[in-house]
Amino acid sequence: MPQRIHLKKVCTFLLVSLLTICCFGQLPFEKKYKAIKVREYKTWESIVDTINYTEATHTIAIPRMYHKTKTLTIQVTANDSLETVTIRLFNKGQLIQKIIAPKAYFGLSTPFPAFVADYNHDGLVDVKFLIPYYGCGAFNTYSKVFYLLQKKDHQFAIISFTDNIPEDDSNRLERDVDGGGSYKIITRSFESHKRHSYWLYNMYEFKGYHLMNANHTVNYPIMIQILDNETFRITRNLTRREMKKYAQKLPDDYSER
Q: What is the pLDDT of residue 66?
């Protein structure tokens, strides 16, 4: 009997989590801030090993990356036997950079659309894309996020981490939360406090080619209790000071390449 009760609680939590995610992408307290403007490119061409289903290559072309004229082609190759993905960058068919980066939970998934903007506020356009997990239950909402930050020599630094982003909201937009012109990244993860489950939101910003915690900007992190009838309000079960104990210096699985 105790085991059945435990499973029922787990299933209820996962169901509530999924309903929460599917009904709401970015929440009202995020949307009040100005969002970054992006160019979106949806079409990835995928080649999958249909015999063993152990390797996949996804390719997308991003126009107007260099001097507003030249095209950048991104090719992501994943193999189930490896813990990394290979990202190749091409210009006019010529390989210009090859990077080994941490793999997503399920690297064979086709990435969500690619988004182009100046994410680190240095005057050069960058690329962001996500590879979804497509797992089961609440884990269906996790994605590996990749930022390709362009340098002056047209090489790229790659920042990646794991975030909790629903399938129907394939891009959580960066926000200018203080009017300073720098767009912040808001991440979401699960957290437990005194036997209750919460969404935990942290805030980050780019400093050059590095990601830094920016919770101090607007008194983050914040926590929202996961309930049957969601209010999407910052919980009063913890003080802001108590929430700061759960602050994450960097997102889960953070990597710089």
A: 82
**DSSP result, 173-208:** --EESSSSSPPBEEEEEEEEETTEEEEEEEEEEEET
User: pTM (2 decimals)?
Assistant: 0.86
pLDDT by residue (tens digit) across 232-241?
A: 789 999 999 9
Domain boundaries, the chain: 25-256
Q: What DSSP string runs through 71-140?
A: EEEEEEEEETT-SEEEEEEEETTEEEEEEEEEPPTTTTSPPPPEEEE-TTSSSS-EEEEEEE---SGGGG
Torsional sign, CA 215, 156, 253, 224: positive
Question: Are 95 and 81 in contact, with CB atoms under 8 Å apart?
Answer: no
Q: Residue 211 and residue 257: Cα distance in Å, rounded?
A: 12
DSSP 25: S
